[in-house]
Each structure stands twice: as structure tokens, then as C-alpha cells.
Amino acid sequence: MINAYIFYSIAHKLYCWKIPIIPNILKLLCFLIYNSNIPFQCKIGKGSKFGYGGIGVVIHKRTVIGENCSIGTNITIGGKHPHYEVPVIGNNVYIATGAKVLGPIKIGDNVIIGANAVVLKDIPSNAVVAGIPAKIIKYND
């Protein structure tokens, strides 16, 4: 089945090839179908996927997401005023439904972000975080 990641990947390739207009049309189509804003300018690694097609996902256009990440529904990954920087997410990260990842932060590899967590600080690799604001509750071996 077609999902938001497919729309994103086609639009991103066209954007990299400097083909105008079509990436914007694909982004709009993704918004109309999935009610999500996944800009073709952001970088999402191979093997990453969106839960339920990517319903309600909002990603900042300068965000970098690593490979093999799993992103749930109603996720926001974006900036925080007054900072210019946006989140950089490592490889093999699982972001559960409703989580918010905001500001100039780095998320390490193999991290699990719990449902509805609000991440405002850097998270080291192999951590499990949850809560508002998110706190490390466990380290994976």
C-alpha cells in the first residue's frame, strides 16, 4: 500500500534532481491524503517507515532522520523558538504515537521514545525515554 514515505521519497529525489513544481504537488497530495506535513527538503534515511501511512506527522524541513526509524502517528519533529537548529535523529529510532521532538537536539541511535513524550534535550544512544518532559527511564543493552 502507498504511504507518506513513498510520496516523500519520490518528491525528495525530484527535489535533489532540481525538478521544480512536482515535489510541491506530491507534498500537497501527501497532506490531502494523510493530513501530514513531510517536506521533501528534510532527510529521512532508507528503511524508515511511518505508522498507519503517516497520519498526522509534522516534520520540519531541516530535520535529519537516520535509517530504519519507525515514526508513529501524530508525531511532531520541529524547531523551538528562538533556536534555528532542529532535531537530528539517529538510526534505528522508534518514536511512538503522539511524541514531540522539539528544538536543537540530537537523538542517538537505537533510542525508543514513548507515546506522548515531549523530548526537549539530547538523548544518548540505547536509551528509552518517556514523560513530559521526557526523561530516560532505561538503557537497552
UniProtKB/TrEMBL annotation:
GO terms for biological process, alphabetical: cysteine biosynthetic process from serine
Tell me which GO cellular component terms the UniProt record holds: cytoplasm
Give the matching SUPFAM superfamilies.
Trimeric LpxA-like enzymes (SSF51161)
Keyword list (alphabetical) reads: Acyltransferase, Repeat, Transferase
The answer on whether this UniProt entry bears the keyword Acyltransferase reads yes
Q: Which PANTHER family match?
A: SERINE ACETYLTRANSFERASE
Family, per entry: Belongs to the transferase hexapeptide repeat family.
- Protein name, entry field: Serine O-acetyltransferase
